[in-house]
UniProtKB/TrEMBL annotation:
Family of this protein: Belongs to the FKBP-type PPIase family.
The keyword Isomerase belongs to this UniProt entry's keyword annotation: yes
Pfam families on file: FKBP_C (PF00254)
EC number: 5.2.1.8
Gene this chain is encoded by: LOC110417065
The name this protein goes by in its record: peptidylprolyl isomerase
Annotated Acidic residues bias: 14-26
Length: 603
């Protein structure tokens, strides 16, 4: 099929027209498979299928695919009117166009490769009331069909601009992403066959996000699996457009508005992961690890690596050239943050190249390492292999006593981090501690009191971390969990009030402070917080008074308009001068005590 035929193709052309209320193939998929010699109607269309020979595999073509078939068409009395077998020349056509007969396409989408079937088509799905090729009108026809093969056709751009024909399927259900490094082979040609670009025999390697030649190539690569081979028919919009391309690398120029035919193979790709989510630590997987389990946080890992600067200077080696491997526990700040975070994502046996920005390396300080000095603000490159790791046991792997002990240990680790000012890491420790003693009903009655105390203590400490990190909402949520268990817990009320004050929810802050003082009237910290709250309320009242004063000034200015206009406004708003004056007087009065004003607001 030539490129000219695809020009102007749209989605409906690829998918085909479906005049049936339901696709016959859907019924076949939900019904038991046909046995050889068995006949069945496809849906309610009146089309019948009789299986003559089983196919292979389980896949079937779809509308838009290019199928290659042998067929023999006959009437019910056995009269043959068409056949590809007479000259042994199979027919290749696109499903959905009704090239042979409209109903036949609906039958072919139920067939597997190598399958033979006899389809009986009622007149509406055959040649209809007009007839064709000398056949009588309203003829019932039969087609003995063999599906030899098909090529999957995909409209990548959904507008007919990039049509992909899969010539050879790839391996595994994995596709590259924008960050990945791909190795591809391609040949790009004009419609007349002139080659305008071609990779060397070994192919070209590049990062998908960097692109190559034209946008169609990148878009197609993102839809391909390892080892997949395709041909692309690319309209000018996704090729070189109205400008074309000058001659380059020994290949001729691409004229303006040229349609391109591209033969493309995705040889392989290396996955690249944005470890930290901010494009500061990338991991390019050089060799896949074993299984699906990764080290994760808290794992005891053993790694080997070679570490380099941007100028390729090696500044450290571990586990290579006779050096001992490095052992450490992830998420414990025992190595630089970038290496720590990346190691927690690796599988056993995985090899990867890490690109670590200075923020996740040694920062702005000079670092003296084994083989060289690392200058300030240096980006780093680590070629790492995960030799082994032992994951920290998950809560479900422990008995109740072990869970309590693990929770207590995590809590103490959090306390040490909090005292060191490492609030984010401390908060994570408290979260883990709570995970070990979550409400799953696995604790004995005599353990419940201790478990509850651990939960409450960790939530309170976590709230303290959130306040230090200016995460007011996080503090509110953690304190609210405590208050669901102990509604007069003074620490929870105190810290939640602090968080409410940070978010300017002064009414809610006052309620929590009042509850805390009811529970502990002499609590010095709560009284000091109450004093701070009153100062904030005074400042808030002053702002309100200023706002109302400005509103009054604007209203006074507006009252100078002609009397006729004033009367119209009175009629529209329905307010007397007396009512308006009272409203303005109230708005300008800021002499009322703040407690009274708050009481009104809270009601």
């Amino acid at each position: 099929m030539g490129a000219e035929k695809w020009k102007g193709t749209n989605v409906s052309d690829i998918e085909g027209e479906d005049d049936l209320d339901e696709e016959p193939g859907e019924v076949i998929e939900s019904a038991p498979p046909l046995e050889v010699g068995e006949e069945r109607e496809l849906g309610s269309s009146g089309i019948k299928k009789k299986l003559l020979k089983n196919g292979i595999s389980w896949e079937t073509p779809e509308f838009g695919d290019e199928v290659t078939v042998h067929y023999v068409g006959t009437l019910l009395d056995g009269t043959k009117f068409c056949s590809t077998r007479d000259n042994d020349e199979p027919l290749t056509f696109k499903l959905g166009e009704g090239l042979v007969a409209k109903g036949l396409d609906h039958g072919i989408i139920t067939m597997k490769k190598g399958e033979c079937a006899l389809f009986t088509l009622p007149p509406d799905f055959g040649y209809g009331a007009e007839g064709r090729d000398g056949l009588p009108p309203d003829s019932v026809m039969q087609f003995e069909m063999e599906l030899l093969s098909w090529i999957t056709v995909v409209d990548i751009s959904k507008d007919g601009g990039i049509i992909k024909k899969i010539m050879e399927k790839g391996e595994r259900n994995e596709w590259p992403s924008d960050l990945d490094e791909v190795l591809v082979k391609y040949q790009m040609a004009l419609v007349d066959g002139t080659i305008v670009a071609k990779t060397p025999a070994e192919g070209n390697e590049f990062y998908v996000k960097d692109g190559r030649l034209c946008s169609a190539l990148t878009k197609a690569i993102l839809t391909m699996k390892r080892g997949e081979k395709v041909t692309l028919i690319v309209q000018p919009k996704y090729a070189f457009g109205e400008k074309g391309r000058d001659a380059a690398d020994g290949f001729p120029a691409v004229p303006p508005n040229s349609v391109l035919n591209i033969e493309l193979e995705l040889v392989s790709f290396k996955s690249v992961v944005d470890v930290t989510g901010d494009s500061k630590v990338f991991k390019k997987i050089l060799k896949e690890g074993e299984g699906a389990i990764v080290a994760n946080e808290g794992a005891a890992v053993t790694i080997s690596y070679t570490a380099r600067l941007e100028d390729n200077t090696v500044f450290e080696k571990k586990g290579v050239d006779g050096k001992q491997p490095l052992e450490f526990i992830t998420d414990e700040e025992q190595v630089i943050p970038g290496l720590d975070r990346a190691a927690a994502t690796m599988k056993k046996g995985e090899q990867a190249l890490l690109t670590i920005s200075s923020e996740y390396g040694f920062g702005s300080v000079v670092a003296e390492r084994d083989l060289a000095v690392v200058p300030p603000c240096s980006n780093l490159f680590y070629e790492v292999e995960m030799l082994d790791f032992v994951k920290e046991k998950a809560p479900w792997e422990l008995n109740s006593q072990e869970k309590i002990e693990a929770s207590g240990k995590k809590k103490e680790e959090g306390n040490m981090l909090f005292k060191s000012g490492k609030y984010q890491r401390a908060g994570k420790k408290y979260d883990k501690a709570v995970d070990y003693v979550s409400e799953d009903g696995s604790f004995r009655d005599d353990e419940q009191k201790l478990v509850k105390a651990l939960r409450i203590s960790c939530w309170l400490n976590g709230a303290a971390c959130s306040l230090k990190l200016s995460d007011s909402q996080g503090a509110i949520e953690l304190c609210s969990k405590v208050l669901d268990f102990e509604f007069h817990n003074v620490k929870a009320l105190y810290r939640r009030a602090q968080a409410y004050m940070e978010t300017s929810d002064l009414v809610l802050a006052e309620l929590d402070i009042k509850k805390a003082l009811e529970a502990d009237p002499q609590n010095r910290e709560v009284k000091l917080l109450q004093k701070t709250l009153r100062q904030l309320q005074v400042e808030s009242n002053k702002r309100d008074a200023k706002l109302f004063t400005n509103m009054f000034a604007r209203m006074s200015k507006d009252s100078s308009v002609p009397m006729k206009k004033l009367k119209v406004e009175k009629a529209v708003h329905g307010k007397s001068e007396e009512v308006l004056a009272m409203e303005m007087e109230c708005a300008g009065d800021s002499s009322a005590p703040s407690e009274d004003r708050m009481a009104v607001d809270s009601s």
